[in-house]
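Structure, all four chains, one model.
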Amino acid sequence: MEIVSDYKWEKGQTIQRMVEQFGSLGFQSIQLNRASEVAIKMKREGAKIFLTFTSNMVTSGLRGFFAQLISLGMADVIVTTVGGIEEDIMKATGERFIIGNFKVDDLALHEQGVNRVGNLFIPNESYEKFEDKLNAFLELLYAKKPRWAVSELLKEIGLLLDDKDSILYQAARHNVPIFCPAITDGAFGFHLYLFQQRHKDFIVDVVEDFKNIVLCISYDDKKGAICLGGSISKHHALLACLLNGGINYAVYLTTARDTSGSMSGATTDEAKSWGKIKDDSDAATVIGDVTITFPLMMAAALEQLETEGLLQHG
Amino acid sequence: MEIVSDYKWEKGQTIQRMVEQFGSLGFQSIQLNRASEVAIKMKREGAKIFLTFTSNMVTSGLRGFFAQLISLGMADVIVTTVGGIEEDIMKATGERFIIGNFKVDDLALHEQGVNRVGNLFIPNESYEKFEDKLNAFLELLYAKKPRWAVSELLKEIGLLLDDKDSILYQAARHNVPIFCPAITDGAFGFHLYLFQQRHKDFIVDVVEDFKNIVLCISYDDKKGAICLGGSISKHHALLACLLNGGINYAVYLTTARDTSGSMSGATTDEAKSWGKIKDDSDAATVIGDVTITFPLMMAAALEQLETEGLLQHG
Amino acid sequence: MEIVSDYKWEKGQTIQRMVEQFGSLGFQSIQLNRASEVAIKMKREGAKIFLTFTSNMVTSGLRGFFAQLISLGMADVIVTTVGGIEEDIMKATGERFIIGNFKVDDLALHEQGVNRVGNLFIPNESYEKFEDKLNAFLELLYAKKPRWAVSELLKEIGLLLDDKDSILYQAARHNVPIFCPAITDGAFGFHLYLFQQRHKDFIVDVVEDFKNIVLCISYDDKKGAICLGGSISKHHALLACLLNGGINYAVYLTTARDTSGSMSGATTDEAKSWGKIKDDSDAATVIGDVTITFPLMMAAALEQLETEGLLQHG
Amino acid sequence: MEIVSDYKWEKGQTIQRMVEQFGSLGFQSIQLNRASEVAIKMKREGAKIFLTFTSNMVTSGLRGFFAQLISLGMADVIVTTVGGIEEDIMKATGERFIIGNFKVDDLALHEQGVNRVGNLFIPNESYEKFEDKLNAFLELLYAKKPRWAVSELLKEIGLLLDDKDSILYQAARHNVPIFCPAITDGAFGFHLYLFQQRHKDFIVDVVEDFKNIVLCISYDDKKGAICLGGSISKHHALLACLLNGGINYAVYLTTARDTSGSMSGATTDEAKSWGKIKDDSDAATVIGDVTITFPLMMAAALEQLETEGLLQHG
């Protein structure tokens, strides 16, 4: 029987120490501590780890952290939405996003050519420069062959980038596939369409990529998932695991709730009914904004794994 | 200057009357009243209407309402997730979903072969029967041609169904395209993959379908969107409108919040900064579960539009 | 085994019919239907009904509905916060609140002497006029006796009002006590303090009022609670019932969640662990804004109860 | 113009460093960084600091942190709900709360005599022992005088406790008043009532305590508020400041939203319209569970203030 303990501030307190204290604090802090322990366990047990996130997190400064996690061997498979791909490429090619406010005059912003994502701003010109870059990439790819699975295509682009903080860059160099089941749902899609108009035999093969995600793990692998937010990123990773016998370890960090039956809000409990999470799995759901909960939960796990020599360097 | 009015129950009160009273009640009820008025206006003004929803809503009894709205001419374009497609086909071929509870023993459910979506249950055998049906459909389609855009493929399936309460059935018969930008993110994707293993030249062309959604409306059309929940359904519809000069009328009904910068939680205000909603558009965001807010908001709008002779019958 | 049914719009649809259809729709609509049935049942079974709400609901147009419910015999005990008392008196003495917006320039509002409650505005002058009225009331009361329990004091004020849409007016005339455990937490408290400065023997006896709420029901009564939102209103009603053997029927309508352990977000499930809700009770929790869910849920219940001749008139 | 920066894990990372990085991360992490800076600023500027919280936070391990903050001079006035008072006394007299789960069989818990608060459990016997203690305290107080303002009464009890982790203990010894505007809304109220039955002249004077909170600060003081969660705790503190010319610095940490017009969800923006926060004030609202956000935000602030020699020791 575990007992609630009084939290106390200690001078020079580390993240690891705070997350340890969270284990007996209460409510979501307990969940966060458990999530950290599940993340440690999935690595310790040699599970193949799916890391999933949505595009707004790439808009934020979590983007470089995702890249770092790939380089440290904490992500074996990435699933994200196309906005995340686009913004990673923008940042890798020099674009910068601005810290703004939630409460602004949105019409005025629009007139200034600025797009808002919560309290972050993206200038239109970042999109314009992205388009030029993307077209150049597509020409290079098409010169090799006309039919591409999405994850193959993203790997090729990753190899063309030169930014160690880039998700695509690190993924390409560490053989971590990036799956994006709705590749056309963004500016990327528009440029694929324009490109296909000029090259009718150019094909983006999403069905082939379903094979790739199903076969990138095996029935015998232990499998873990760290799902940030909801959307198809989360669903796609869990589906791939389900088709391989289900998942062993799961961590969901989200703001969505389970009361409306959405995939985004579904907890690790609900996942058990789908066989998405195996009966004996270790799982934790943390309700909260991932820009706070994820660095905290993950940094504590990394400290421990580093101590155990389980992180990869270089 | 509008004044808050005291709501009073009246015997035999209709939906239309209640939603009218909501206009001066307060908080989200005011938003719901505005949403209803925006829905009326977009139809009255002859806008092309995008209706977007997520799969959990098709799990629920909103599914037949979506089909009805298509038949009444209230939806010119549908965007949804693949789970919604799958479950519409299941229901159209006789499967029934069960009313359960949010708080259950999920491992026990799993052992009984039952999958949970919030407080609704789907038996495994509904998925098994779906697979047989889907394979038969794919054979018929492939016999016609090997390369299909997603919306073409869904139309063909819709024509093969025989259920007036089916979204695909009504959409196929009313020339309402159904877009599904992540067609592989579900059991559907798994069967496409198995099918492609047997027929290597079978291609699902998502890039072609991006052309279809962009060209299904024109720059000159007035455009409206009714977005239920978030996800790629909402994003994809708004993107297609943006590439055609932006949207004139927008209604968002969602439980997601704007405080984490997610697409699902983005309000109609934020959309202005992206040019997704035109500066002078009419727009309303209602926070709440769509199984309550949507029937209420839309039934009130339908009453008014019926009175004005603006609904299509047959 | 209940089955999900497709919702369909019907011309001239009534509230009662829609809420009936909600019973097989899904997610929160099912909860709302259950809440309506629990409300019917508590009246049918002759339970003493506690109705609790927070001040923002009195700011909204629900205020007149609360008064109506008292007059119809649907509320035997009221528990609310002092802001609700103040605003009911303001409205009863002619003040009007304005429909505004959630997103405004709050500093500009302040300079205009306008206070914001969500998307509703209250002018400063409404508060100023309230103060004059309240002082006059206190003088009249003090002339009778110096020591008052809160509910006695509110009844006296109710008798001095002349507005059938007033909660205090109807409560006073139907012998429905209004409890307000934090009577000083508002402008009311400030004026009590100024009054006590002039009359040192003037006492507001909150401990006496605890006796009143505990004794206003008995151990043998069947007890029901309809709790809108959270806060001390909800807690106080449940506590009074708990001290009388627990509650038989409970309906919670709220936007708060159970994930942070707050009283406001506690569900009817959690209440069982406290003995607040009896083991065999009928209970339902609906997540959503009460300005939408409450009129809907309650109007459907009223229709049924009227048919059964269970509402009181006059 | 501030730019989004990529977050990176660093070995041995401290809380202070992480919260610094949050300043350019995005969404709620930016808000948390701002909240930390506002907390530093209010102390640096010599503001009188109101710290408000709800009872569930005292159920959790934040209780000892609140006591520590009082001893460090980071709280000049406390406002809380009576459940928080009760549980602080329980813990101070040896009771221990248990770490449980959100998803349990609540009827079974009830039969075991265990009460649930989110994922924490409180045994019935803790309440029983509390009652004995409280009666003894009341006898001691009554022997001194029959009429008590709430904050006086709580100070006396605090002086009788012997636990450095107790809020009441530290507050009594540092002359920090504890206000509790609804002192009867809990087991405390029940025992006050039983006591008053035996001693008719025993009076708990809430009106006197309103004077105390209004006069514990002056118009000329700089004033700050750190409000955790909502409820009357938050409202009462802001009201007291408003009556003294408004507040200069405000930090709100909450899970409640502003879309339903509740006090709990009202942001620091809305407070400006009420003059609750002065026009030129520094303010930040962070959405999230306080068991995560508060230790993080506050520990970072304490590190900085310790460096500047602004914390009190002993």
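Chain B touches chain C through 60 residues (CB under 8 Å).
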